[in-house]
Amino acid sequence: MPYTKKHKMNIRHKIVQSASQAFRASGIKAVSVPQIMSGAGLTHGGFYAHFDSKEQLVAEACKSAMEDTVTRLGSVAEQASDEEKLYAVIESYLSAAHRDSSEQGCIMPALAGEIARSSEDIREVFTEEVSRFLSFVSGLAGQDEDKSIALTATMVGSILLARSVNDPELSDKILRACRADLK
């Protein structure tokens, strides 16, 4: 008996989630299709029943990861007062928990460097997702696009730098200084 459409969609979702986490943790090129499928609890032979290529999966994983980030940060904002929504998002984004959990965090600091050298198709999807995040920030801040871009670039760069240094005190200091500056 063939699988239902719902079953196939659930399996596809599991694959995208596995890829999304693996890419953010290790990078796109470092993660193989068999690793992704194993992370989803599946054999690698079924991959092409769901995707034409790893590139197609990368694009979907980027969308999924940004949806997760905006949803998570949207929940943080909803719990704050109107005056504190933006700062609550900044606090959450520039936290040690976000820094230390790249597999669950925002795709921008995790993958931007690698995506800059990816195909135009992947870069187009990434661009759409960055625009989505900028709209989210702009909506919270009630600011013009330029201020939202500067705010987002500071947040992304702060996490990237905090993850890159091997001195825990300096990493914490980077996060603290950027949170204070953005407040």
Automatic annotation (TrEMBL):
<feature type="domain" description="HTH tetR-type">
    <location>
        <begin position="9"/>
        <end position="69"/>
    </location>
</feature>
<protein>
    <submittedName>
        <fullName>TetR/AcrR family transcriptional regulator</fullName>
    </submittedName>
</protein>
<dbReference type="Pfam" id="PF00440">
    <property type="entry name" value="TetR_N"/>
</dbReference>
<keyword id="KW-0238">DNA-binding</keyword>
<keyword id="KW-0805">Transcription regulation</keyword>
<dbReference type="InterPro" id="IPR023772">
    <property type="entry name" value="DNA-bd_HTH_TetR-type_CS"/>
</dbReference>
<dbReference type="InterPro" id="IPR001647">
    <property type="entry name" value="HTH_TetR"/>
</dbReference>
<dbReference type="InterPro" id="IPR009057">
    <property type="entry name" value="Homeodomain-like_sf"/>
</dbReference>
<keyword id="KW-0804">Transcription</keyword>
<feature type="DNA-binding region" description="H-T-H motif">
    <location>
        <begin position="32"/>
        <end position="51"/>
    </location>
</feature>
<dbReference type="InterPro" id="IPR036271">
    <property type="entry name" value="Tet_transcr_reg_TetR-rel_C_sf"/>
</dbReference>
